[in-house]
Amino acid sequence: MYLIHIDESGKPNLMDKENYILSAFIVNEEHWFCINNDLDDLKKKIFLSLSVNPLDIEIHIKNIVHGSGKFRGVPRDDRFSMLDELYSLIENMQSTLISVAIMKNKIRKKSFDIEMWAFKLLFERICMFLTETNLHLQKANLPKQYGLLLLDAINTKYDLKVRKKYMRFFKEGTEHVQNEFLLEDVLFVESHFRNLTQLADAAAYCIRRNLRSSNTYKDRKFSEYFNRIEKLFNRDSNGKFEGCGLKLFP
């Protein structure tokens, strides 16, 4: 079983100029405990100075970068030292990353549904990942592996709207893929209690900052972090992650 934690960075509307990123952090169940425990250990190590239980802290990258929330008053260098350790940990995790970036400056239709298109493109690539994985397992006479999508919850009303929007992909597929290996539909979880959803947030935020054209200290740091996690992106038969593990659209 693959646990597929999904989170976003940016807003799914055209009035906000920042690109919209939807990222899936994919972990096989056999590696879940190790990854979860590694992140708990890192929280204990780097967040003790905040005078709260480190395990009660949600890693929300935006708050760390801007020094808001529980990170208010923490010096910038200390906050980026935390991020240095976090992204170093992520780059060595036994996991796969699939992300979609909606490039808003290239969209001309005001009615364009950013949220729906991002999920559709992500859904297709997750289905392709599971199909390819199971082809290899079949050749090795090993049992099939299925996937479960876990999406960061916002609120009941919003989550219901999202679920209705996404349901048809599970039942009907798209013009490119059919769902063979994803169970249920989207399951909503609270990121505060889900370490791997927090890692999906870390990936999505990193990708969004890396796509910026500016050259501030923060953007340079996230270009560095992107280079660290690049190895996690799912790749095609030619070894390329562009379009496969990271889709820029349009």
What descriptive keywords fit this protein?
250 residues; alpha/beta; Nucleotidyltransferase, domain 5; 45% helix
Q: Mind explaining what this structure looks like?
A:
This protein has 250 residues and is of the alpha/beta class. It has a single domain, classed as 2-Layer Sandwich (Nucleotidyltransferase, domain 5). It has a 6-stranded mixed sheet with strand order 5-4-1-2-3-6. Helix 5 links the parallel strand 4 and strand 5.
Stretches where pLDDT is under 50 for at least 5 consecutive residues are none
Strand line-up across the major sheet: 5-4-1-2-3-6
Q: Can you tell me the CATH class?
A: Alpha Beta
Tally of extended strands?
A: 6
Number of H/I helices = 7
Mean pLDDT: 93
Rg measurement, Å: 18 Å
Distance between the termini: 32 Å
Give the tally of structural domains.
1
Q: Which CATH-level-2 architecture?
A: 2-Layer Sandwich
Q: What share of residues is helical?
A: 40-55%
What class would the helix/strand composition place it in? alpha/beta
List the secondary-structure elements in sequence, H or E. Answer: EEHHHEHEHEHHE
Q: How large a portion of the residues is in β-strands, by DSSP E?
A: 5-15%
Largest sheet, if any? 6 strands, mixed
What gross morphology would you assign? Answer: globular
In brief:
With 250 residues, this protein is α/β, with parallel strands linked by helices. The protein has helices at 29-46, 61-66, 76-91, 114-139, 156-172, 195-210, 217-229, and strands at residues 2-9, 20-28, 96-102, 147-152, 187-189, 246-249.
List strands and helices in order, with pairings.
Elements: E1 2-9, E2 20-28, H1 29-46, H2 61-66, H3 76-91, E3 96-102, H4 114-139, E4 147-152, H5 156-172, E5 187-189, H6 195-210, H7 217-229, E6 246-249
Parallel strand pairs: 1-4, 3-6, 4-5
Antiparallel strand pairs: 1-2, 2-3
Helix pairs in contact: 1-3, 3-7, 4-5, 6-7
